[in-house]
Automatic annotation (TrEMBL):
Main localization category: membrane
The protein's name in its UniProt record: ABC transporter permease
Residue stretches spanning the membrane: 27-47, 294-313, 334-361, 381-403
Domain MacB-like periplasmic core: 26-253
Lineage: superkingdom: Bacteria
Organism: Winogradskyella vincentii
Family label: Belongs to the ABC-4 integral membrane protein family.
Domain ABC3 transporter permease C-terminal span(s) in chain numbering: 294-408
Keyword terms, alphabetized: Cell membrane, Membrane, Transmembrane, Transmembrane helix
Database matches in PANTHER family: ABC TRANSPORTER PERMEASE YTRF, MEMBRANE COMPONENT OF TRANSPORTER-RELATED
Protein's cellular compartments: Cell membrane
Membrane topology: Multi-pass membrane protein
Length: 416
């Protein structure tokens, strides 16, 4: 056992000396592995961070929440021309659903897409997401109000001229003044601010911090029922105790009857569940990971070829030394370990430098990007270290094996 430890130690020492004596070559070899490991771990960490931030933003939502709309939130087999001819989801559809579908905890009607200008005295903000939506969204999205209140069901049904705004929007419009009771202009009409939402931070899609919520019926009073080409949807939160599959079947059947669809006719609407959206996001994340592996793998492959090439050159340069070592009694395993250690040290150091660069970038991003947390997990660091070690072993094994098999006499003669 002591003999093997001594062989390992001496082989390691020879490898370090060889790397120190060829600094430029060592640096260039390190660079190839560093770029490869950096590329892979940076991509994986970025995708993991994106996945984590999206999941955290969706964590507060009920995954069984359903969006009934003419649009599909994910891939569908229905041709585009058919989907374009589906009727818009109107407020009357929402009224039918909330009165006739059992086991609904809460429902709401939303009109998507409204980038508007909002004004308060001399302050004007453009491209603000103003969402016309009925009162039920307060429960469905579990919104929290830190100042004032959310509009009531009565205000929602009657289309009262009121607005609830996000924290960033409140700060940009009113600075440190109390927004409650202030009158702003949206859609060219006056609205009274009755509530300010808590600060949510970055969100998947538009953050509530930069949004405004108004009763859908307020917009319907002057915008062609509130649609004007903008898509609407019925948002449904089933009761927790309900079987979601059975609930979806009942919803589809009753809504088909309401739309007057015959048994042989296809649905002219989509029932979108948030759980389906989460699965769709998971598929996208998996695809991004795969693409990242393929692209970054080429960089790592180049680094591995670089190490193998350098090791073959190193064997060629030290043929005479190998012959002398073997003539003095060095075993094949000593020569093998010597070159294998050299390749592995190159790869491991290059990998560690790559990981260090990713770590530095993560610190910089977390310091400058407030609403997005860049995560470098231990699993990814361990993966980077393991990959660099594996690349070193694979790249060095053939040159090391060829060096260990050299005939001492021929090696000395060749090197002279």
């Amino acid at each position: 056992m002591l003999v093997y430890l001594r062989v390992f130690k001496e082989s390691f020492s020879f490898a370090l000396n060889a790397l120190r004596n060829n600094k430029l070559r060592t640096f260039l070899s390190l660079l190839g592995v560093t770029v490869g490991i950096f590329s892979i771990i940076a991509v994986l960490a970025a995708v993991d961070s994106l996945d984590k931030n999206i999941k955290e933003n969706l964590s507060g939502l009920d995954k069984n929440t359903i969006y009934l709309s003419k649009y599909s939130f994910g891939p569908t087999d229905v041709p585009r021309w058919k989907r374009d001819n589906f009727p818009q989801t109107e407020y009357d559809d929402y009224e039918f659903v909330r009165r006739n579908i059992p086991d609904i905890e809460e429902s709401a009607y939303v009109i998507f897409g409204g980038s508007e200008t909002i004004r308060y005295q001399a302050e004007t903000l453009t491209n603000i997401n103003i969402t016309p939506i009925s009162h039920g969204i307060y429960t469905i999205d579990d919104l929290k109000v830190v100042q004032g209140r959310f509009y009531s069901e009565l205000e929602s049904d009657t289309g009262a001229p009121v607005i609830v705004i996000g924290s960033n929007l409140a700060e940009n419009l009113f600075d440190k003044a109390n927004p409650i009771g202030k009158v702003v202009r949206v859609y060219g009409r006056k609205l009274t601010v009755i509530g300010v939402l808590k600060k949510y931070g970055a969100n998947f899609g538009d953050s509530p911090d930069d949004k405004g919520f108004v009763p859908a019926n307020f917009v319907r009073q002057f915008r062609n029922g509130g649609v004007d080409g903008l898509p609407g949807a019925v948002v449904i939160k089933p009761k927790k105790s309900v079987d979601i599959g059975a609930f979806e079947s009942v919803l589809k059947q009753k809504f088909r009857n309401y739309r007057g669809l015959k048994a042989d006719e296809e649905d002219d609407f989509f029932v979108n569940k948030l759980s389906g959206l989460v699965s769709f996001i998971d598929a996208i994340i998996a695809g991004l990971n795969t693409v990242g592996w393929v692209i970054s793998g080429f960089s790592l492959l180049v680094g591995g070829f670089g190490i193998a090439n350098i090791m073959f050159v190193s064997v060629k340069e030290r043929t005479n030394l190998i012959g002398i070592q073997k003539s003095l009694g060095a075993k094949n395993r000593f020569i093998l370990f010597q070159f294998l250690f050299e390749a592995t040290i190159l790869a491991v150091v290059g990998g560690l430098v790559g990981l260090f660069l990713v770590w530095i970038i993560s610190l910089i991003m977390n310091g400058f990007v407030e609403d997005f947390k860049f995560v470098l997990s231990f699993a990814n660091m361990f993966l980077g270290f393991g990959l660099s070690t594996l690349i070193g072993l694979i790249s060095g094994v053939i040159p090391a094996f060829s060096a260990s098999k050299l005939d001492p006499v021929e090696a000395i003669r060749t090197g002279m």
